[in-house]
Amino acid sequence: MEATKTSAAQTLENNLTNLVKRNSELENQMAKLIQICQQVEVNTAMHEAKLVEECDELVEIIRQRKQVIAVKIKESKVMKLRKLAQQIANCRQCLERSSTLITQAEQSLKENDHARFLQTARNVAERWEMLKVGRFSGLHRLTLTSKETDIGD
C-alpha cells in the first residue's frame, strides 16, 4: 500500500509540476497577447491621427485650388466682358456712322442741283469705302468663339 501511495504521490506531484508549468506558459502567452492588444490600440490611434492629418491637408489643398480656380474664372469673365463691351461699342459706333451715311445718302437723292448731288454722292461713296474698310472689315472678328464664351476655360 505504501508503494502505491508513493507512486500516486509522485504522479500527483508530476501532474502538479506540469500544471504549474502550463499555467506559467499560459500567463506568459496571455501577457504577450495583452501587450499585442495594447500595441494594436497604439498603432490604430497613430494611423487614425495620420489619416485625419493627411485628409485635412488634402482638404486644405483642394480649398486653396478651388480659390485659385474661382479667381481665374472671375478674371476670365471680366476680360471677356471687357472685350465684348468694346466690341459692342465698336458695333454701336459703326451703326451710328452707317446711319449717318444712310441719312446723307437719302438726302443726296432728294438733291435737285446736279453738281451738288454729284459732290454729295461722291462724299457718301468715299465715306462708305472708308467705313467699309475701316469698320466693317473687322466685324467678322467682333464675336467671341464658343470656346471664348465658355467661362470655364
TrEMBL record:
Domain B-box C-terminal: start-end pairs: 8-134
Molecular function, one GO term:
microtubule binding
Instruction: Give a Gene Ontology cellular component term annotated to this protein.
Output: microtubule
GO BP: protein localization to microtubule
- According to the UniProt entry, where is the signal peptide? none
Residue stretches in coiled coil: 9-43
Q: Which UniProt keywords apply?
A: Coiled coil
Q: What protein name is recorded for this chain? A: Putative E3 ubiquitin-protein ligase MID2
Q: Does the keyword Coiled coil apply?
A: yes
InterPro entries given in the database record: Bbox_C, E3_ligase_FN3/SPRY
